[in-house]
Fold each of these.
Amino acid sequence: MSPLDDTGAPVPVPDRVRRVVSIVPSLTESVAVTAPGLLAGATDWCTHPAGLDVPRVRGTKNPDLERIAELRPDVVLGNTEENRPADVGAMRAAGIPVWMTEIRTVDEALSSLRRMLTEACRVPVPGWLDEASRVWAGVAPGAPRAAVIPVWRRPWMVVGRDTFTGDVLSRLGVSNLYGGHPERYPKVPLDELNAAGADLVVLPDEPYRFTEEDGPESFPGIDAALVDGRYLTWYGPSLAAAPGELARALAAARTY
């Protein structure tokens, strides 16, 4: 019987997996660090680990399906938020096994990655994943903060409901003021963001690259924390270091 991915779809992966194509940067890093010899292809946006040398298949939203087929993967790894259903359906119709992850919390990340690696990639649980589970189990929230979390400007977009980013921050004591918004990434006018009652704005360097010179000035009188987006939004080997790195960035928040 084929194992089921996070969406409940059966994925006919062989008993021994030799070639994996990943169309999500976090999943690419997870495979490359765990079993680098398996990775047969990745997106143009897959930047970790450094020096990754594999064939590229364009982006998460516009993968080159013909190129993926040419790479003869035993399984393609995707994510329900990052990848389009039409592309997943086209690959499956072409006979390519596609394993879809669905991750909106830290706990889901830890369990989903464990299943993906052991059931879809047929490799043992890596040490980094056990370490990440241990680290997150011991996280104690810091001083409570109420935050807005922009991910884009022109127009301004923020983290809304049911997101991995929101769950990561909540475990560190940061409450997302837009966590109850009907949309997951709503567009919100800047004047509304400034009037939301936040005492903190969290500014990651991806997908929009916020910096000291580009972002904090839009939130006068509000502490700004500039954070490494990889620790805030990626689910993979970075999970083990994320609590410590983010806690340090939050503690360094200041008004610019």
Amino acid sequence: MKLAQLELRRIHLELVTPFRTSFGEQTAREILLIGATTDDGIVGWGECVAMSEPLYSPEFVSGVETVISEFLTPRLTQHGEFSAADVAHILKPIKGHQMAKAALEMAALDAELRSQEINLHTRFGGSRASVPSGVSVGIFASIDALLTAVQGYVDDGYARIKLKVEPGWDIEPVRLVRDLIGPDMGLQVDANTAYTRQDIDHLRQLDEYDLLLIEQPLDTDDLLGHRDLAQAIETPVCLDESIESFTQAEDAIAIGAAEIINIKPGRVGGYLEAVRIHDLCAAHGIPVWCGGMLETGIGRAANCALAALDGFVLPGDISASRRFYSRDIVQNPIEVVGGEVAVPSAPGLGYDLDVDFLESITTSVHHLSL
């Protein structure tokens, strides 16, 4: 295909409740959407998962918009015709900026698949029509507030609970949530790099609560620390922020730093790289699951298709849209039914935009001719 135009659209979407992690609190999402229009007039959309500030990763919305405008788009323009599978190779000379590249590849995939009238689920070869849905629960001001929220998610039918933790908010919340949900429901924790190697003995206390995993407890670049932690505790160690590419996943597996991997397409540079990492992990017997970045219905639809691959054996962070947003930017947003979400089957990524609502929350639009 050949692209005729890119649209960089910023939107502001309020969260239904504040979402706090070890690196900060969000009350709204500023999101950069990328619309890719082909010469044939087909429009595909990608969603960038970068935050407004460089807290989760070095990327942030304003920086992503600059990188796409000044460096990534010109390379696509110079290349002329290309397929979605070519995007990563074309953009490889630009170092880093995985989330920016992923958003462009996502838009190209959507446009390409819509033109072929096939869906992302078929493109990936996923075997399931629905996938188990887990929910991510932030850090609260009180234990009572946490338990009330968790009970609500249990009542909503989620298959798994994930608790955000940090020093001072870990052992006791985990103990009480385990007591609340019982021994059979899946429970895991996510530290977002909040601990150090000196906390290994402290983290060993979590073994008592039969957790599915502890996610990214140490710094992003501390693979050896994660290896040591994995050897010292019974709770499986899962890597998130540490995995930004196939090679990093390969290295982490080789040294025993990753017993489980959370695959976030935006973090690793795109959905096609995510599939490669899935295949690598499957070959080594490493369980994977699909992480979330508070995506709109665009990203949630794509994540569903990814999570339908056989290697995704743990429930992902693909919650109902209403978990975070009172109104989504797509028609027929994701819902949880019986602990699962249906994999979209419409052409492209599998959604239709709610155009009127999208326009009402748009803060800027920038068009780039190719």
